[in-house]
């Protein structure tokens, strides 16, 4: 029953590749239901394949596919449930007034945008899209 574990691996990897393909395009789904279903389906295929292989014999190949698949599925499922997608467009354009915010700097001191009042400022930061 190795093929069930292999199908599970393909479903998990395929679901994750499909999800990651949406990131560069900027159209990451707010609720990745299809990707969560892919993770769960891949896990179910792997568990069933592993259970049937243990029952019927040689289980080592199925275990070699099922265990990493279950670990990947669990990790990806966890990551998908932890991300928070901001609502709406959060973009600052050239010439816009800088929104007020406070954040710790690299040394742990609090930086506030109020300290930049009256100055021209270029702010560059990475806002990851997970």
Helices and strands, with pairings:
Blueprint (H helix, E strand, L loop, with lengths): L1 H24 L7 H24 L3 H23 L19 E3 L5 E3 L18
Antiparallel strand pairs: 1-2
Helix pairs in contact: 1-2, 1-3, 2-3
Describe the overall structure.
It contains 3 helices and 2 strands; from the N terminus they run αααββ. With 130 residues, it is mostly helical. The protein has a domain at 2-82. A two-stranded antiparallel sheet has the order 1-2. α1 (2-25) packs antiparallel against α2 (33-56). The two termini are 35 Å apart. The model has no long low-confidence stretch (mean pLDDT 80).
In short, what is this structure?
The protein has 130 residues and is mainly alpha-helical. It is 55% helix and 5% strand. It has a domain at 2-82.
Please supply descriptive tags for the structure shown above.
mainly alpha, two-stranded antiparallel sheet, 2 strands, 55% helix, elongated
Would you report the number of β strands? 2
**What percentage of the residues does DSSP assign to strands (E)?**
under 5%
Shape: elongated
Helix content: 40-55%
Query: How confident is the prediction overall: mean pLDDT?
Result: 80
Number of helices: 3
Low-confidence stretches: none
Q: What is the ordering of alpha helices and beta strands? A: HHHEE
Strand order of the largest sheet: 1-2
Structural class: mainly alpha
Terminal-residue CA separation:
35 Å
How would a crystallographer describe the biggest sheet? 2 strands, antiparallel
CA radius of gyration is 22 Å
């Amino acid at each position: 029953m190795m093929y069930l574990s292999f199908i599970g691996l393909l479903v998990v990897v395929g679901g994750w590749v499909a999800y990651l393909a949406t990131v560069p395009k900027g159209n990451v789904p707010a609720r990745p239901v299809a990707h969560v279903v892919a993770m769960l389906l891949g896990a179910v295929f792997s568990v069933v394949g592993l259970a049937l292989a243990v029952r019927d014999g040689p289980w080592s190949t199925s275990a070699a596919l099922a265990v990493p698949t279950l670990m990947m599925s669990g990790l990806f499922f966890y990551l998908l449930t932890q991300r928070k997608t901001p609502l709406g467009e959060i973009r600052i354009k050239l010439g816009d007034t800088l929104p007020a915010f406070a954040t710790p700097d690299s040394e742990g001191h609090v930086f506030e945008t109020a300290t930049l009042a009256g100055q021209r400022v270029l702010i560059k930061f990475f806002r990851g899209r997970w």
